[in-house]
Design a protein that fits this description.
By secondary structure, the protein is α+β, with helices and mostly antiparallel strands. The protein has 2 domains: 44-186, Immunoglobulin-like; 209-260. It has 5 helices and 10 strands, in the order αββββαββββββααα. The strands form 2 sheets. The protein has an 8-stranded antiparallel beta sheet, with helices on one face. The protein has a two-stranded antiparallel sheet with strand order 1-5. α4 (209-232) packs antiparallel against α5.
Length: 263
């Protein structure tokens, strides 16, 4: 049986569709959208044993070291639970602020990762081959808790980090908390310096001793002249003025001569 031309075309189109379905069906499909969870799988405290404030009592030493220039700050706690800045590049002759010292220690002890991951890339890609900063806590029994800080991430405000002497996994830490710990180097936990009080200063007298003496003599002469005029009655005002003027000139001359005379 011969097939007409239209039937042959229809058969050919169906064959093409079937082949296309078979070929496309063998290709991997696009990854499905994944709804992000509230907390990344790798998130959590770096040091679970001391993450709670109630478990941080045995921490006796806190250190932040800049591996690039060697600047640092070291705080130690004595048997009376008093923290002291025992070493600091930016040391000052001030007492240690206990609240700030305990707060910095606790932030490091409770530091949590935003996420963590494994990577086949070299550590240098994350600034962790030679970390920029090293944070260290030391307990009474000698146990150390170490965090090594690398470069900042490009897209988000985070730092790459390693814990202890491991090279994997790589942790992502919140930038604000890490920056706060780094700032302890430049601004150690000292009690604020007292605000200096203004010291009163005397204002120089613009008049010389001779001028002051003469002025006092003039005022005294005017006073006696007024008393004399009053005693004489009100009938001789011109005499009162004249007497006042003469007494003033005379007193001024005498005062000036006495003040400038050699002892």
């Amino acid at each position: 049986m011969r097939l007409d031309r239209n039937t042959l075309i229809l058969i050919g189109v169906c064959a093409i569709v079937i082949i296309a379905v078979i070929v496309l069906g063998g290709q991997p499909g696009a990854a499905p959208d994944v709804t992000p969870t509230a907390q990344a799988e790798g998130a959590g405290p770096l040091f679970p044993a001391i993450a709670d404030t109630g478990t941080q009592g045995d921490i006796v030493r806190f250190e932040v070291l800049n591996n690039t220039d060697g600047s640092k700050v070291v705080m130690t706690k004595d048997d009376a639970n008093v923290w002291t800045i025992s070493e600091a590049t930016n040391a000052r002759d001030l007492a240690t602020d206990q609240t700030q010292a305990v707060g910095a220690m606790s932030i490091l002890a409770s530091l949590s990762a935003i996420d963590r991951f494994e990577s086949d890339q070299p550590l240098s890609a994350f600034g962790l081959e030679t970390p920029f900063y090293t944070f260290t806590l030391t307990a009474k029994d000698g146990t150390t808790y170490v965090v090594k800080i690398g470069a900042q991430t490009v897209a988000n405000p985070r730092y790459y980090a390693l814990v202890g002497d491991t090279t994997t996994p790589i942790y992502l830490l919140p930038k604000d908390l890490v920056d706060g710990l780094i700032s302890e180097i430049s601004n150690p936990a000292y009690v604020p310096a007292p605000t200096p009080t203004a010291t009163a200063t005397s204002t120089p007298n613009p008049f010389s001793e001779v001028e002051q003496t003469a002025t006092a003599a003039v005022e005294q002469a005017q006073f006696f002249a007024t008393l004399t005029a009053t005693a004489q009655g009100t009938g001789a005002p011109e005499l009162t003025a004249e007497a006042t003027a003469e007494a003033t000139v005379e007193a001024a001359a005498e005062a000036t001569a006495e003040a400038t005379a050699s002892p």
